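FORM 7B: Structural annotation worksheet

SECTION A. Query
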Amino acid sequence: MTDVIDQMSALFADRVAAVAPCVVAIGTGRHHASGILWRPDVVVASAQTLPDRVDFTLRRGGAEFIAKLAGCDPGTNVAALRLAEPIEAALPSAAPTPRVGSLAVAVGADDTGVPTARLAMVHATGPAWHSQAGGRIDALLRLDVRVGTDEGGPVLDSAGQLLGMSTAGPRRRALAIPVATIDRVLDPLLTEGRVARGWLGTGLQPVMVPETLRTAAGQDSGMMVMSLAPGGPAAAAGVLAGDILLDLDGTPVRRMRALAAAMGPEQIGKSVALRLLRAGALQTLSVTIAARPAA
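SECTION B. Predicted structure
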């Protein structure tokens, strides 16, 4: 048994050593976060760990580098930093979807850029999902560890392949943002500074449909319009405060996450049928989805 443990220990130590050149520490003020050298001149990091500023100092193995924030996507929690000078490092190849119960290692960096590591087990996997902020995450990869300053670093499988970037979910339980998600949002972040997503221009609140109207509505809940952005798509289509939104093109809208799922980048510019309740009567309006204004 001791030999098996020693072999496994050596295996994961080798995996961490191999990915070490791709791991950086990002100065955030009093503390630091971790990041991944995704391209020679680009570091990706967990957006929620970065303060609201443009210039950052990065460290790798004690050496310092300067980078600027190129873009940030709260929807997928991916931030992109552009290095002033490129650094060479070989990013591991993308890993296949892991099995629940398989081992992984979450790699981060201390404040000098020297690697740190946490051994984890894959707690759960699942299909693509949408965050509360509207981003599409290509797969659910949940780990059984909590992350701290190592958030934003690479997550590796036992073969040393890259599962994704660690980020903290509820109660700081680690999730891995998959490689496919990062690859999909990275170029828009580098060129536009953000990932454009669809927008109706409404402030909404989940509500129950009155019992007397549920049969006609075909559902028992919807989203009440609490506010409207002046000149926004919903206002231009004739939506009013107090309306209860029921569905978009036949897809029920009962929670913000459901609406976010229907507001992907590919929906911008499309006209959709918005079914709603107004003063006890069903109405259908045509609304053209616009790009959410930049913050």
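SECTION C. Observations
The first helix runs from residue 2 to 19. Residues 2-192 form a domain with the Thrombin, subunit H fold (CATH 2.40.10.120).

SECTION D. Sign-off
Analyst initials: ____
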